[in-house]
Specification:
The chain is an alpha/beta fold. Strands 1-2-3 form a 3-stranded parallel beta sheet, covered by helices on one side.
């Protein structure tokens, strides 16, 4: 009976370690070159109640080294309340900035060949 109990705990521990390993594998940090800068553009339109949660999630990825880059919140017609939240987040969360104007990633109609009409560049 004691051996069954010990075996159960060993197997349960093995399963937990295996799940932890899979989680780590899925959150493998991005590798960037020495002269490469990563920027995540978050374009927000209208009212967005989940903006704070989104930015805090990206901030968590930055803080644990999974996302070695900056986050730019772009005002694509935010309402006043969302714009105030974005400004507050830009002041309080490291690596987050807020832009009121559109950020051009590349000139219109000259995006990569794998982007189709209506897709996000």
């Amino acid at each position: 009976m004691l051996y069954n109990l010990i075996g159960t705990f060993v197997i349960a521990g093995g399963v937990i370690l295996f799940i932890w390993f899979l989680r780590g594998l899925m959150l493998t940090p991005l590798k960037k070159g020495e002269h490469t800068q990563l920027t995540v553009l978050v374009r927000v339109t209208g009212r967005e109640p989940a903006l704070e949660q989104t930015v805090k999630g990206l901030g968590w990825l930055r803080s644990n080294g999974t996302l070695p880059g900056t986050v730019v919140l772009v005002d694509n017609g935010m309402d006043e309340e969302t714009a105030q939240v974005a400004e507050k987040l830009a002041r309080s969360v490291a690596g987050v900035c807020y832009r009121r104007e559109e950020v051009d990633v590349w000139p219109p109609r000259s995006g990569p060949k794998n982007c189709t009409e209506g897709s996000t560049p």
